[in-house]
Amino acid sequence: MATLGLIVEPATTPAADRAADRRRMALAVERGWGSLRVSRAAGDVLALGRYHLAPAGAPDVMLDRRLSGGRAAASGSGFVTLSLALPHRSALVSDDPRALAPEQVLNRALRGLLGGLEAGGIAAIYPGRDTVTSGRRPLAVVGFEVDGTGATLIDAVLAVAREQSLLAHLLDRADPDGVVGAQIMLPDDVTSVTRELGHEPRFDELVGWLRRGYETRLGVRFVEEESPRSPGEDGAESAIRARAPRPHLDRRAITATMLGRLEAHCALAADGTLAEVMLAGDILAPSRTIERLERSLRGCRPAVADLHDVVAGVVRPPDDFLLGVGSLRTVAETVARSVG
C-alpha cells in the first residue's frame, strides 16, 4: 500500500503553490514517498504550461506558470488544483522507476481523480492526452513533469464552479498579441463539476471524494500534513518570464500536434548553423529533456536529417520522452521550417 501525504489548502496563491510543489518533489525523493495537494486560489488566473511563451499580461488577470507541461488553462476562482508529487514516475505501482512507460503515467495517476469524481456522482474518463472528460467534454486539464532527479509531479486543474470556456476571455485580456496558442472552447464544448451535478459541492466535500477515490482506486494510505514552504524561493515573475518572446529569435515555425501546437523559435549564426533554439507550446516532456534538446541543437545545420539525428540522440526512451507530437521527426521538421 502506497503512502501519501495529504495537504489541503482552501486558500492559496499560484506562486505559493509552485514553491510548495518544488519542495514537495524534492521531499518525495528524500523520504521515498509522495504527497497529494488539493488547493484553490482566488481571482482570474491564466495558468500557462511549462513551455508556453509568456504573454503581456493584464492588471485583472494573474499569470501563473505550472511546473508541468501541457496546454494553457483557466484557473483561480471556480477551479480546484490537484498536484501529486512522487519520488519517481512509477511510485504508485512499483519501486522500479521504469515500471511505467511515460505514456502510462497519467493514465495510472489520474485513476484517483476519476474515482473521486465517481464518488461524487460524476462519470468521468481519461481519454488520453492532457484532459479528463465527462460526456466527452473537458472537465480537467492535466500535465506532468519529471525533473533531473526523477521526481515526478502530476497536476490537474479541475473545473468546479467555472469552466475552461473562460480561457478565451482570459487570453483576450492578458494576451492581446496572441502569444499563447490555445484551442478556443465554447460553453457547450466543456463542463464542470457544478454543471454535472446541478449544484456546487463544498470544498471539504470535494476533498473527501478525492481522498476516497485515491484510497479505493489506488490503494493509497493518507497521512495528513502541512504544505512545505520555502520563504523567498517562489521567484514568481522570473518563472513566468522564463519563456517569453525574444526578438533575436526571429526565425519561427508552428506545427499542429495532438496536444495543440509545437513552436520552434530560432536564431541563425553567421555560418548558417543554429545559434539558439527555444521550443514552446503544448509539450509534455521532462524539463531536463527539453533543456538538453535545445542545448544540443545549437551549432546544428538546419537540415531535417541532421536535426532528426540530434533529436533522436537526445530523446531516448524510457528516461527521455516527448509525448503528443507523434514522430520525433516532427520536431526536426518544425525547426527546419523555422529557418527555411
Which CATH architecture of the largest domain is right? 2-Layer Sandwich
User: Pairing-aware structural class of the strands and helices?
Assistant: alpha+beta
Q: At the fourth CATH level, what is the homologous superfamily of the largest domain? A: Bira Bifunctional Protein, Domain 2
Highest-level CATH class of the largest domain: Alpha Beta
Biggest sheet, in brief?
Answer: 7 strands, mixed
What is the averaged pLDDT score?
A: 95
**How many whole angstroms does the radius of gyration measure?**
20 Å
* Structural domains: how many: 2
Order of helices and strands: EHEEEEEHHEEEHHHEHEEEHHH
Q: How many helices does DSSP assign?
A: 10
Distance between the termini: 54 Å
β content, as a range? 25-35%
Unreliably modeled segments: none
Q: What would your notes on this structure say?
A:
With 340 residues, this protein is of the alpha+beta class. It folds into 2 domains: 3-237, 2-Layer Sandwich (BirA Bifunctional Protein, domain 2); 251-339, 2-Layer Sandwich (Enolase-like, domain 1), CATH 3.30.390.50. It contains 10 helices and 13 strands. The chain has helices spanning 14-31, 105-109, 111-119, 166-174, 193-197, 203-218, 236-240, 287-297, 304-314, 329-339, and strands spanning 3-12, 34-41, 44-48, 62-65, 73-76, 79-86, 131-134, 137-146, 152-159, 221-224, 251-256, 261-268, 274-281. The chain has a 7-stranded mixed beta sheet with strand order 7-8-9-6-2-1-10. Strands 4-3-5 form a 3-stranded mixed beta sheet, with helices on both faces. It has a 3-stranded antiparallel beta sheet with strand order 11-12-13. Strand 7 and strand 8 (137-146) form a beta hairpin. The longest helix is centred in the N-terminal third of the chain and has 18 residues, at 14-31. The chain is globular and about 60 Å long. The model has no long low-confidence stretch (mean pLDDT 95).
